[in-house]
Amino acid sequence: MAVLNVAETCVGTRALGPGRRSVVWVRGCPFRCPGCLAPEWIPDVPGRPVAPGALAAELLADPEVTGLTFSGGEPMAQAEGLAEVARRARAERPGLSLICFTGYRLETLRRRPPNEGVASLLAETDVLIDGRYVASRNDDRGLRGSSNQRVHHLTGRLRGADAELNGGPRRVEIRVRDAETLFVGVPSRALAAAYPAPAGAGAGAGVEGGRAALQDTDDHAHPAPAGVDERSPG
Ligand code: SF4
């Protein structure tokens, strides 16, 4: 069984898709999109190792969660393990929806999948948001980071939310933890500029597509100026 290399999780958010959702961001991404909010989560270095069953249980700790969102890093790089998370979560809570971000194009995933687990993860996915982040095409709309990214409804489960996914207003939740603040959601360009990931980034992180940004609270109090296109989501 594949053990996942997890960067962060957030249980019970309304900032990353319709309804109340739980999110997992994985570590490691083969892409290097200019403006990625999570450069420190691009290297495939050890994060928190979690078995799929344990991760599914963690994500379902909130009984009101009706969907999961997988982001990163690159979820397709850990497709086998994430597919198992989805299967186990749905065995526990049938009807869960799944949104998955990826830097790959759907056509590539189908014709030349980067690993054997991709087909399994696609089979579990209701909505795939695909493509690499292009800062110049960030239009501050929808759950995709830039307008070149596409929202694919692989099932009909979230078709009613298409307008929200493609062009709805962006939402960000701020979770205050012991010594850190976790930003959950796809930030507007203005918010990303106001709260850039800290330079050097040991404590800071943002993630693909539906991004989080983890920053020391001290860093929040003194956000460094940054160009919008330098810190926007993918
Ligand atoms: S924006 Fe997404 S696909 Fe691009 S480098 Fe960052 S995590 Fe990878």
UniProtKB/TrEMBL annotation:
Tell me its cofactors.
[4Fe-4S] cluster
Instruction: Give the record's keywords alphabetically.
Output: 4Fe-4S, Iron, Iron-sulfur, Metal-binding, S-adenosyl-L-methionine
Task: Please list where the region (Disordered) is annotated.
Answer: 200-234
Q: InterPro entries recorded for this chain?
A: Aldolase_TIM (IPR013785), NrdG (IPR012837), Organic_radical-activating (IPR034457), rSAM (IPR007197), rSAM_sf (IPR058240)
Basic and acidic residues bias (residue ranges): 217-234
Return the Gene3D superfamilies for the record. Aldolase class I
Transmembrane feature ranges? none
State what protein this is by name: 4Fe-4S single cluster domain-containing protein
